[in-house]
Amino acid sequence: MNKENNRGQWASNIGFLMAAVGSAVGLGNIWGFPYKMGASGGFAFLIVYLVLVIFVGFATMLGELALGRKTGLGVIGTYKVLSQKFAWVGWLGFLSGFFILSFYSVLGGYTLRYALGFLMELFSEDAGFGGLGSGAFFGSFIINGGQNILFHGIFMALTVLIVMGGISSGIEKFTKVAMPALLVMLVIVIIRSVTLEGASTGLAFMFAPNFSAFQELGFMKVLKTAAGQMFFSLSLGMGCMITYGSYLSKNEDLEKNAMIIPIADTIFALMAGCAVMPAVGAFMYQGVEGISFGAGPGLLFVTLHQVFSVGMGGFIGNLFGFMFYFLVFIAAVTSSISLLEVCTAYFIDRKVQKGEEPNRKKLSTIVGFLIFIIGIPVCLDGLGSGVAGGATIDIPAVVFGMDEVRMAFDCWLDFYDMISEGVFMPLGAILMSIMIGWVLKTGVIKEEIESSGIKMRAYAFWDICFKYLVPIGILFVLIGQIDDFFG
Ligand code: PHE
Predict the structure, then answer these.
(1) How many CB atoms lie within 10 A of CB 247?
(2) Domain spanning 13-379+411-486 has what CATH number?
(3) In angstroms, what is the span from residue 331 Cα to ligand 1's centroid?
(4) Domain ranges of the chain
(5) For ligand 1, what atom is nearest to the CA of residue 332?
(6) ipTM of the assembly?
(7) What is the Å distance from ligand 1's center to 197 Cα?
(8) 237 CB under 6 A from ligand 1?
(9) Does the predicted TM-score (pTM) go above 0.90?
(10) pLDDT tens across 385-395, in order?
């Protein structure tokens, strides 16, 4: 740990980049991006997404990194120090982290279950998935609350274990190994995927210019989906990059880092698309049942399971199945640690400010445990979903007395996702942008960038982004959200 302050610091800029890209690249890229692209019109979605990254993503990233480094505090501390009026915004970020991680970890548990499943099938047939087909297995898994809780617990425990190690010797050390490994595994899966017979159907779906989705779904709907996806995928709007930025040395080039992270994340999302869509297209083309581009959330756990077990099949299918789900699992861990860090940092900052020595091990364990508990209702979602043959046992809703809320959202996962990705994150980003552009003025970012002795290169662009483009862009998203909710 860094001697000058007991919060910790990244050992190198490349280590920071691995951690930040690791945070950004996760289920959002490998699952969310391909399936949202699949359901929201392929190429049209891609174009909207890229425009959003350029005019909203880059600036929000720069703003978060700069504010975090300036204050040297987590998300709550940062807003408190910078503006009295905006002090409460930090709590939105903290709560987003808390809720996102509680369902993220459940899904991370799924990826672990599937990786283990394919691994076991490699050694003995039917050992991993009990001889069930992809749809039947998924159905049996999501109603198995006990197993869901077990894997959620394992995933959360691994996350805590890494965060406990601290910034440079926990998070940085892990991501420096995990990210290159992730890249290699992804490339191998892509090569297999694009060389399958009929793979071009999938590539065409992604890259052939086609804007029919704007008429079919409406431009606003595509915009809203792409924007929500962008914030989530870039880990923006909830202070994750504020927190990671706070551990960054004053010597590093913020403008450059703020460009590298979104570009790397977008490349990973496109690569994930190239791993998933060509395989889906190939087996659709070959007539394997139960496979389509627009399968929605089922894409990762039902369609792709089918791709590996029936499409590829045999030893090779199990091998690639294992490799793919293990890759998704690693990507999920490098993100979950950043979510836990957002929440843990608040308690660490409080100790440091009181002049006490923070006990990172204890604090991260307590926070991780609380998040584990909050995630349990998500593990039991399957029980009330009708998948269990209309089962009426609804433990989570009874415990929390929030049956109406749960019913309105179908399941806890959607509810947690809606308040975090759907509301808190865009709200957090719009408020930060207004605070920078109109209250503190973009000069505050310039000052922080130039404190490294590096001249700010694109002041005018960032200024327009903070003042107009980011707030207006997000306003559309929020209006779309409200419209959806009441419409
Ligand atoms: N960006 C991560 C993903 O794509 C999720 C995440 C969101 C991580 C917010 C941290 C903060 O999966």
Answers:
(1) 27
(2) 1.20.1740
(3) 10
(4) 13-379+411-486
(5) 12
(6) 0.98
(7) 33
(8) no
(9) yes
(10) 443 333 333 33
